[in-house]
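dTDP-4-dehydrorhamnose reductase: structure, please.
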Amino acid sequence: MDQNGHGQRISDLDRFAALGITAIRYPVLWELTAPDGVEQADWTWADERLPALRDLGVNPIVGLVHHGSGPRHTSLVDPEFGPKLAEFAGAVARRFPWVEYYTPVNEPCTTARFAGLYGVWYPHGRDDLTFLQALINQCKGVVLSMRAIREVNPNAKLVQTDDLGKTYSTPEMAEWADFYNERRWLAWDLLCGMVDEDHALWKYFLKSGISAEEVLWFRDNPCPPDVMGLNYYITSERWLDHRGDRYPAQYVGPHGFADIETARALATPTPGIGPLLEETWERYGLPMAVTEAHIDANREDQLRWLYEVWNAAHDVRRKGADMRAVTVWSLLGSYDWNCLVTECRGYYENGAYDLRSPEPRPTALARLMRELSSGRAPSSPVLQGLGWWRRPGRFLCPPVATSATVAALPAERNLAHRPVQPILISGATGTLGSAFARICEERNLAFKVLTRQEMDIADPASVEAAIRKHRPWAIINAGGYVRVHDAEQESDRCLRENAHGPVVLANACARHEIRLLSFSSDLVFDGSKGAAYVESDPVAPLNVYGQSKAEAERRVLAVNPDVLMVRTSAFFGPWDRHNFVTLALQALQEGRAFTAASDLVVSPTYVPDLVQTCLDLLIDNEHGIWHLSNGEAVSWAELARRVCTLAGLDEALVDAQPATALEGQAPQPRYSALGSERGKLMPTLDDALQRYLKAVEEVRRQGDTHVGAAQAAHYGSS
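Here you go.
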């Protein structure tokens, strides 16, 4: 809550309610509320938040422990963990006797694995005994907590969450797979009183050092969930393979076999969550809900994941299961789960809201939630594509052929009646146009790149014909006039391509209700501010090129305010030979001096990051002016030196000169760096440069270099 800011934003509750949700998993965390005991509990958070949710018509499902060990005076291997948690749970119930749903401990089996078996979380155990102790203590905490809660509210209901996974394997690993597939049920089995001498893992408990009395306590004190909370991720389904040498080293454990996500290994995708829900229903016959459904992916794949889970839940319900809900977890996204929150890297995964703006910004996922909650048909055209977990190119090893049946794809089935709508991309030969084509292909977004002959953006008849032929849902104007200095002598051509053409596109897109992404430049500013420009700063271009972009902004947004207009600058990327960074790197690697301006300050922009971010914003249906760059103000000479340092080259070869020694005919602002008041959505410059250097090496190995249209002269170099 400190990282995502929710602790200071009660206004988030209004946002959540506007999604159409009727219940929300909400924390009243033990270690934060009562770190020094119930007598000294601070109820400020809960007193403010829980009644507010109730007043908004949203039922809180109160969580007390979430992947933690509780306060410092206890731990997962403390025999008193359960009684101490129950004391806190009773206090919560007395404070809020109207609360109906509780999850005293989130994912006890998963938490026990990571804390007691894998050594990732405290107490960092790496043995079966610690795992089982942590599991039993958490489950006992659930039983005792619900007992204490129900003394206050007899109608209180337990929503017991855990990861719903399944393990597949080669025949040689069948015994391991069978064991894992039994172990996944353990928390629920214990709570349901199903573990006794006849249970498949009874001997495992005893052999590991757990007494029969400890296990049978649950048989005598059952606390079956009122709702089975089933969490499902791309990592939930695993493939075990005895041939460890076929796989990347990080997937091979100490026993020598590989343990990897099925999506990264199996030639035939698994059917997904549907059969796992059916297994759960057959085993327990209890009401079910998907309590976490999230994937760290590009925006369209987040939509595809949620919709696939949603459809699977409906299919299971139609077959007779008591399926109650699908939960989008988490609404605000999450930090550092790519390292299982073992480090503070600041790695952020979007949820329904994007936190990289001054206020949480609803994404396309929020729109899909509203549509699903109200019974409307999903509107996003990107649902038509397959998620990455079902596409070729997903593999991290030679694909493994299995006898699994090809998965039925509900999302594809339900959208099959719709014709596939592409994105039209103008500027087929330019740096941006070719980058958009490349990344749209990687992301499985239908697209069509058009040459000027196929769509002249300045010719209304040509634009209309292209729209009628291709029926796009969006147009990306990635072309235009780019020769900054030549524009001083070719002003008519520059204005036609950069100002008139975008207006023609904007008019056509308004008529046909098509989304439009167009690009502007830092050169709409004169540099007099002396600090990074934000979106609302007044424009004052110094040259014809900047004037053409400023005119395009004004006219386009006047006729079509729904256009997404992105200001950016100082492109560099691995796929064309003529950007500043590539030219500098080539010269420096060859031992040649490289001259660059020391007094022109810009904000460099890594083209792959720009394209990825623009596509997300386009899918989110964002509009208006956005500033996108990799966020750091540097001179051209400093940028060249930065590349030198990261590439291990001699920065003495960078010859820093004043701009007057380098400029062509067009005046340029001395300081045109871009900041943003709408959101900082792209990685840092150093991060981008490091990835650029790796990508350049990959391009060289593949011999795959695309020539863009940008001129080096635009970047203040000679």
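Notes: Residues 405-413, 705-718 have pLDDT under 50 and may be disordered.
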